[in-house]
């Protein structure tokens, strides 16, 4: 299956393309507490999964695909037919409640906003201007296939620590947290609750507990001294540095090669 249907800040298409050999072949459940665009999940197509994110609209979108992809697809076709400047901002200002309308709005905005950036203000309102792309259907949807796969997944909108604590021996835990370092808050806000340095510390401690339970762990994170120190001081973690390219940025100078940190345990 094509590995995702959303453009997402920090998405893991690059990881699937260049680092998939790191993913385990044998495991019980696949667990992902920072689901985002779900590139690794859709690539692995696990038999059983626990998926979560703090972005409620994102989880609602996955639930809509899981439960009623045909209705979602029909609403998205309406957005595609009506798309223009005025319509984009009309939809951006809406606050639908029914899950398929929430999902169709999110996918439509993701396809037509500036550079695929997902960003909200302090009130949790999506505020990205319209971009130059007019294509709402990209051929990467595969909603029916994704719906079948998601029937084997539990979906939660919750804090990452709650999901990590569900992982048990021989489960595979993939973590791709927002990138925050000790000196500054460098991550673009994608939910009302900004992931900060204290969350990096909580994440390291939660992964340490999971490691002791025999969970198979693979995490990508920002390659920064402060982050490396969180794991270098804990026994059983393997740290490696890799390079990847990021094209999702509001500024041209932000689209470049980045050094990433890969942390693993029990693999």
**How helix-rich are the residues, as a percent range?**
25-40%
Biggest β-sheet description: 7 strands, mixed
Strand content: 15-25%
Relevant CATH superfamily of the largest domain: Vaccinia Virus protein VP39
* CATH architectural grouping of the largest domain: 3-Layer(aba) Sandwich
Trace the largest sheet across and list its strands.
Answer: 3-2-1-4-5-7-6
Secondary-structure-based class equals alpha/beta
Oligomer state of the chains in this structure:
single chain
Kindly state the number of beta strands: 7
pLDDT below 50 for ≥5 consecutive residues: which ranges? 185-192
Shape: globular
**SSE run:** HEHEHHHHEHEHEHEE
- CATH fold name of the largest domain: Rossmann fold
Give me the Rg, rounded: 18 Å
CATH class annotation of the largest domain: Alpha Beta
**Residue-averaged pLDDT, rounded?**
90
Q: List the domain count as a whole number.
A: 2
Tally the helices.
Answer: 9
Distance between the termini: 25 Å
Compact overview of the structure:
The chain is α/β, with parallel strands linked by helices and 267 residues long.
Plain-language structure description:
The protein is an alpha/beta fold and 267 residues long. The protein folds into 2 domains: 13-55 and 152-265, Vaccinia Virus protein VP39 (Rossmann fold, 3-Layer(aba) Sandwich); 63-144, Adenine-specific Methyltransferase, domain 2. Helix content is 37%, strand content 15%. The chain contains 9 helices and 7 strands, in the order H-E-H-E-H-H-H-H-E-H-E-H-E-H-E-E. The protein has helices spanning 13-19, 39-44, 56-82, 85-92, 99-112, 143-150, 160-164, 197-212, 225-232, and strands at 30-32, 49-53, 153-157, 172-175, 216-222, 238-245, 257-265. A 7-stranded mixed β-sheet has the order 3-2-1-4-5-7-6, with helices on both faces.
């Amino acid at each position: 299956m094509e590995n995702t249907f959303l453009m997402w800040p920090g998405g893991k298409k690059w990881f699937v393309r260049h680092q998939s050999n790191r993913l385990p072949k044998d495991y019980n459940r696949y667990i992902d507490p920072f689901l985002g665009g779900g590139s690794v999940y859709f690539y692995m197509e696990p038999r059983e999964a626990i998926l979560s994110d703090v972005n409620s609209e994102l989880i609602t979108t996955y639930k809509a695909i899981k439960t009623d992809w045909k209705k979602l697809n029909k609403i998205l076709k309406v957005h595609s037919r009506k798309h223009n400047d005025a319509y984009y901002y009309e939809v951006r200002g809406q606050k639908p409640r029914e899950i398929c309308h929430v999902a169709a709005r999110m996918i439509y905005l993701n396809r037509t906003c500036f550079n695929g950036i997902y960003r909200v203000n302090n009130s949790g309102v999506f505020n990205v201007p319209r971009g130059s792309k007019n294509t709402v259907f990209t051929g990467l949807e595969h909603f029916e296939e994704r719906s079948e796969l998601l029937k084997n997944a539990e979906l939660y909108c919750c804090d990452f620590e709650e999901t990590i604590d569900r992982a048990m021996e021989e489960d595979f835990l993939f973590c791709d947290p927002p990138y925050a370092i000790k000196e500054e808050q460098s991550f673009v806000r994608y939910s009302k609750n900004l992931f900060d340095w204290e969350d990096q510390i909580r994440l390291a401690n939660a992964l340490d507990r999971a490691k002791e339970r025999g969970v198979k762990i693979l995490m990508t994170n920002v390659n920064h001294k402060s982050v490396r120190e969180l794991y270098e001081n804990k026994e059983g973690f393997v740290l490696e540095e890799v390079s990847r390219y990021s094209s999702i940025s509001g500024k041209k100078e932000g689209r470049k090669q980045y050094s990433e940190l890969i942390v693993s345990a029990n693999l």
